[in-house]
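User
Take a look at the entry that follows and flag anything odd:
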Amino acid sequence: MGKERVDCYTNTFMQARGVMPVTALLVDDERLALDELAYLLQDFPDVEVVATASNGPEAVKRIDDLEPDLVFLDVQMPGMDGLSVIRKVRVSGGHQPYFVLATAFDQHAVEAFRLEALDYLLKPVDKERLAESISRAQRSLAERARTAPPEPPAPPPLPPGPKPPIERAKILVRAQGRHLVVDSQDIIYATIQDGTITVVTGAIEGVANYRTIEEMQSHLDPDTFWRVHRSYLVNLHRIKEVIPWFRSSYQLKMDDKRGSEIPVSRVQTKRLRTLFKL
């Protein structure tokens, strides 16, 4: 294939108007392969690379935190291969991006499409085939947006009335071999990973004795604690900064010792804008 044909194809793609922008996560355990793909994607202005990952578990966490539209995923990686990443994300019940597998081997194609991967690219990645994958992703994202059910209208506000006093809940937290009783108002945020809930306060970080974030949230003041993301519950009074992120999304910088930055899911972004008049 001549260079002129590739450049013509890419220029046509770049000149298109009204196409849906795409946020992308790149996953490969080989640094050179990541850099090469990122370099190729620079020619596609409608694609924003929001992060990279070098292994399967890191990819799963990035998908959960950043909710990218598209994931370019190597197949053969140590620990958790690309196909296992897709399976884990499919059963998680969380954000479901489109996947494009990029590999030097073609024997995984059947399994990839059984898992409903959007496309399958062979390395070294050809720019024209890359453009086809991106165009396919944009069409799929546009169709998903078109067929998505509309958000239900907000219920009418209840008439104001006296609020019952909220009991200050106590949370048992295991930290440094001890079982500590923490006042809920001292909690800065809680997060769940692999079934374990970590609670962060100004003084300690430990494990709560709840099985799910939903169970923990039900015991806390709903006017104070907000489920900003599937994996995060934050204390509204301990938010230090609202940080603009990609594609009109945001992160929350908390006032713990590390200044943890917590992603706000797309579903919760509307409430964030309302709360802080963004």
